[in-house]
Design goal:
The structure is a single chain. The protein is an alpha+beta fold and about 750 residues long. The protein folds into five domains: about 200 residues, Distorted Sandwich (Glucose Permease (Domain IIA)), CATH 2.70.70.10; about 100 residues, no CATH class; about 80 residues; about 70 residues; about 190 residues, no CATH class. Helices cover about 20% and strands about 25% of the residues. It contains twelve helices and 39 strands. The strands form nine sheets. Strands 1, 4, 6, 7, 8, 9, 11 and 12 form an eight-stranded antiparallel beta sheet that branches. Strand 20 and strand 21 form a beta hairpin. Helix 2 crosses helix 3 and helix 8 packs across helix 9. The protein is globular and about 75 Å long.
């Protein structure tokens, strides 16, 4: 009988190791999170490791709402290579399924697999699976169009273990390369260790596993054998989150130890962020920060980014970032200072009735959210009253260091405890490039010091006086420039790069994160606009991450700049709809029943640090698009503050494709990934609800799981899920690396 697991290559003896998993001994900044094999004799066939979903989207990344109408050209250029992700399915694993699952899932929860594939080989490898994708009624969709939809993340395919999914790329010497990564809930792990641990279930047999391990031996665990070693190592270099978590579990590190490790890692991220914004510490040799997309589930990376920018409100006005340690939160700025996304935990909790006393020192009771519905939960490891050992925190008393919980725990004495804090949502906008290319050259510099760049291709839908370009080969401190003018593949930037001949380029700059933008410079994977020239173009340049229980549970593309396509007021009567909330701030986030069926079950965004009675206001907002707007319909001018702030700001759904339209909002935070975000939030809510109610779910909330926009609208019309309102709360950290400062205007002559 065939076993559920396959090698990712044929005939291991045809391959040699090009790059091992782990740290490069010659470069401490280089950590390979995959195996790369090389061969001069193999055909380069890459195999599906398990049955499952093959996609350009990682597991836990939002997909397109099934009700969204899709149309995509079939003649866009193919990229040379593409990153593919395989998310296993277990429903059709028979025979040894129980033994396989019992071996796999405790050690590698949430396992998935990553490949880099020669895109020109996909048609032959997965064409049959593409043809089988259900597309609904209407005009038949041909293979070329299906392939491009697949490459842009609009559709996925189901593959069978052992089948070819494409072929490897080639190096400069003509050798074929096979890149393969293994990922679990915490991030990347050693592929060789994975195969060694699962060798009993590998279809090709243990001798093939031994062949692979013969030239690619396991290096797991990465970190040292003692607590002190791990502390020294994490203070000396960056590591993937899964590597850190492995050491935490193996050495049973305390919450304090884990926080120290996180702070060690954040120090490296901060140094790189300072280099990125052109303010490197004296003597620094660190590279500029570029978001590590392979390690996107690293909570410390996201924590470092959020902390850096909420303490650096104005990245483009010449100011300097605050030192979080020296600038604690204040009444005026409650969101600055150090940020901590970790759970609270300790070893000394006692209970009398429904009162739990936390006897551990140094606990921040202000970080605990109490409430009968949306409050935090505490897990009491020694409890015998509930199977889940989980209780809802309904009230806190910082003076007495006590909590009131929803039922009486049963503890034999003092014991360990963990408070699972509310979700933290980090939205980085822009996250990274929607257009990029290998070659930008400076062709001239005008009298103002503004350079003209020649790009290898024409970037689509660029917004002058707003968008930015990143030139990694630039020797100037910042490497990022505001775009002033676009004429085909020539652009004018506000500044003068110093390039060693040429540089790769990326629009937008952001933090160089991977948006899964259109591969090969082809059409954008969404259709908005074109809008009137004096308004610019809406884009989904942001990436939103959801963190809960010290794991990144979801990511999806988003737009936090949505007021650009609002009508030009005659005169100024609709001015408020043209402003957008400020970035580089924290906000409160609350589940909200909207008053219309389009927004339906949304998330309310409001000023940071509010109590139970939320004022529906975001006090800080700007007219970011005025430098582009022009008379006679609108006065235009410099970026100014909207002194009224913004009300009714929601995170809600919008369409992927709206030709001739914008993102359909007057300042809200929107995405075509909203349905998947809501599903993940429902799952988080129900995980806690099941723990509190003997494995029973809240049917009113669970009915929203997996629902499309149209189906959610129908549920909203019946009121069957109205308990969504205030079902949970959290924090939104809106990071805007390229945010325009107040007073910015287009330069004279433009």
């Amino acid at each position: 009988m065939a076993t559920p697991l396959h090698l990712f290559i044929e005939t291991p003896n045809d391959w040699t190791l090009a790059t091992p998993y782990g740290r490069n001994p010659q470069n401490a900044d280089d950590f390979s999170e995959a195996l790369i094999l090389s061969s001069s004799t193999s055909s380069g066939r890459l195999l599906a490791v398990m049955n499952g979903r093959l996609s350009v989207r990682a597991a836990a990344e939002g997909k397109v709402d099934a009700d969204t109408p899709l149309d995509f050209p079939d003649d866009g250029p193919l990229p040379q290579q593409i990153v593919l992700f395989l998310e296993p399915s277990f429903g059709d694993v028979l025979g040894r399924a129980n033994a396989f699952r019992n071996r796999l899932q405790p050690e590698f929860p949430g396992v998935s697999f990553r490949y880099i594939v020669d895109a020109s080989t996909l048609d032959a490898a997965i064409g049959t699976q593409l043809d089988a994708v259900p597309m609904g009624a209407g005009t038949p969709v041909g293979r070329p169009q299906l392939l491009r939809m697949f490459l842009n993340g609009l559709i996925d395919v189901q593959v069978t273990a052992g089948q070819e999914i494409g072929r490897g790329t080639h190096d400069a010497n003509g050798k074929v390369l096979a890149l393969f990564g293994v990922h679990a809930d915490d991030g990347s792990i050693d592929p060789s260790n994975f195969y060694d641990f699962m060798r009993d279930f590998v279809n090709e047999g243990q001798s093939s596993v031994d062949q692979l391990l013969g030239f690619a031996p396991s290096v797991w665990p990465i970190l040292g054998a003692t607590r002190d070693q791990v502390m020294l190592e994490t203070a000396a270099g960056l590591f993937p989150y899964a590597v850190l978590q492995e050491a935490r579990r193996r050495l049973t590190l305390s919450r304090s130890d884990w926080r120290t490790i996180g702070n060690n890692q954040k120090a490296f991220y901060r140094e790189r962020l300072l280099v990125r914004v052109g303010q490197p510490p004296a003597g620094s040799t660190a590279p500029p920060f570029e978001f590590n997309d392979v390690d996107w589930k690293n909570v410390f990376q996201l924590e470092a980014v959020a902390e850096f920018f909420v303490n650096f409100r104005e990245p483009w006005d010449g100011s300097q970032p605050l030192d979080p340690a020296a600038n604690p939160p204040t009444a005026a700025d409650p969101d600055i200072g150090p940020r901590d996304f970790l759970n609270l935990a300790g070893t000394n909790a006692t209970a009398t009735g429904t009162t739990v006393v936390i006897n551990d020192p140094g606990i921040d009771f202000g970080a605990i959210l109490a409430g009968t519905r949306s409050g935090d939960v505490i897990v009491l490891d020694g409890d015998t009253a509930r199977a889940s050992k989980t209780f809802k925190i309904t009230a806190t008393n910082a003076g007495a260091q006590s909590l009131t919980v929803d039922a009486a725990p049963s503890l034999a004495g003092a014991g360990s405890w963990t408070i699972k804090r509310r979700m933290q949502v980090v939205l980085i906008d822009p996250f990274g490039p929607r257009s990029s290319g290998p070659t930008a050259t400076v062709t001239g510099v005008d009298g103002n010091g503004f350079a003209t760049l020649q790009l290898d291709s024409a970037p689509p839908q660029v917004n002058a006086f707003f968008d930015t370009i990143y030139l990694p080969a630039d020797t100037a401190p910042r490497r990022t420039y505001r775009i002033l003018q676009v004429n085909g593949n020539q652009i004018v930037v506000q500044g003068s790069p110093t390039l060693p001949g040429s540089s790769p380029w990326a629009i937008q700059a952001g933090l160089s994160g991977d948006l899964n933008a259109a591969p090969g410079g082809g059409p954008l994977p969404y259709v908005l606009g074109p809008l009137r020239p004096e308004r610019g173009n809406d884009h989904f340049d942001g990436m939103l991450f959801v963190i809960y229980n010290e794991q990144v549970r979801f990511r999806g593309r988003w737009n936090s700049y949505t007021s650009r396509n609002q009508s030009d007021p005659p005169p100024q009567s609709n001015r408020e709809v043209q402003s957008t909330i400020d970035g580089n701030r924290g906000y409160d986030l609350i589940a909200f029943n909207s008053t219309d069926d389009f927004r339906n079950y949304s998330l309310q965004v409001a000023n940071y640090g509010q109590g139970a009675n939320v004022v529906d206001l975001c006090s800080h907002a700007r007219f970011f698009f005025d430098p582009l707007r022009r008379p006679p319909d609108n006065p235009g001018g410099a970026v100014t503050v909207d002194g009224n702030g913004k009300t009714l700001i929601r995170i809600h759904f919008t369409y992927l494709q709206q030709p001739g339209h914008g993102a359909q909002s007057q300042g809200c935070v929107v995405s075509f990934h909203m349905s998947d975000l809501r599903t993940e939030l429902v799952e988080i809510f129900e995980e806690e609800y099941r723990a509190l109610h003997n494995r029973v779910e809240d049917g009113s909330i669970s009915r929203l799981r997996g629902q499309t926009q149209n189906r959610t609208k129908a549920i909203w019309a019946t009121g069957d899920a109205d308990t969504w309102g205030n079902a949970f709360r959290g924090k939104l950290w809106l990071v805007r690396p390229d945010q325009l400062p107040v007073g910015y205007n287009r330069p004279a002559g433009f």
